Amino acid sequence: NAGVTQTPKFQVLKTGQSMTLQCAQDMNHNSMYWYRQDPGMGLRLIYYSASEGTTDKGEVPNGYNVSRLNKREFSLRLESAAPSQTSVYFCASSEGVVRTRSTDTQYFGPGTRLTVL
Amino acid sequence: AQTVTQSQPEMSVQEAETVTLSCTYDTSESDYYLFWYKQPPSRQMILVIRQEAYKQQNATENRFSVNFQKAAKSFSLKISDSQLGDAAMYFCAYRSSEYTGNQFYFGTGTSLTVIP
Fold first, then answer.
1. 20 to 30 A from B75, CA-CA: which of A95, A103, B49, B55?
2. Least CA distance to B36: which residue of chain A?
């Protein structure tokens, strides 16, 4: 049981290049999330997918697109990378079932360190 | 939007001693959930402990416990018998009880150093 996995672990891009960050979970969770972590700013939500087939914007969606490929996989795409997108990116998943008194704890992947030159 | 504040960017503790990390939050909701996550140098975010606001009893997990003061909107983490492996960045997080998928708010973190 691997939990949440992310690839790649490290990536260096030049300005204007594109790339896709991959995320997969094996916990049969309904909801998945993409965050970015910058020094002194904690984690900020980029996009989330409440359930398979749905995606919604979070706090900082500009410059990103997502795809919920199936229940297990949720990818984040940078179409034209910019230096401001240099960050550590985390994928997370949660059960996401709406029921009374559900904490809906999020479980995180190991992160991807992205540098845009 | 709710805000989560961690006013201590850095803390240190002697090995085997006790340390308390502070967290306050701002909300108009009466029902919500609070979490502490640990992020070691490996960068993985690891759940430490969680608290449901409707429960008056403070959550505990082995050496980790919380002091939840709902009226003061305070949620501190106490680490007892600190170990070298506790050295990490600790994040406080808030989640609304109304599930919409983006209702998770994180503080800016407290970096904990454990001194041998």
1. A95
2. A105
More confident residue, B30 or A70: A70
Classify burial at A62, counting beta carbons within 10 Å of its beta carbon; exposed 0-12, middle 13-18, buried 19 or more. Answer: exposed
Among the partner-chain residues A44, A48, A108, the one whose CB lies closest to the CB of B101 is A48
The full DSSP string for chain A is ---EEEE-SEEEE-TT--EEEEEEE-S--SEEEEEEE-TTS-EEEEEEESSTT--EE-S--TTEEEEE-SSSBEEEEESS--GGG-EEEEEEEE-----TT-----EE---EEEEE-
Taking the Cβ of residue B116 and every Cβ of chain A, the question of whether any pair is shorter than 8 Å is answered with no
Query: How is residue B12 written in tokens?
Result: 């240190």
Q: Does B52 touch chain A (CB under 8 A)?
A: yes
Whole-number Å distance between alpha carbons of B11 and B19: 8
pLDDT tens track for A56-88: 998 899 999 999 989 999 999 999 999 999 999
Cα–Cα distance, B95 to B107 (Å, whole number): 12
User: A73 in contact with B at a CB cutoff of 8 Å?
Assistant: no
Pairing verdict, β B110-115 and B10-14:
parallel
Classified as helix, coil or strand, B37 is strand
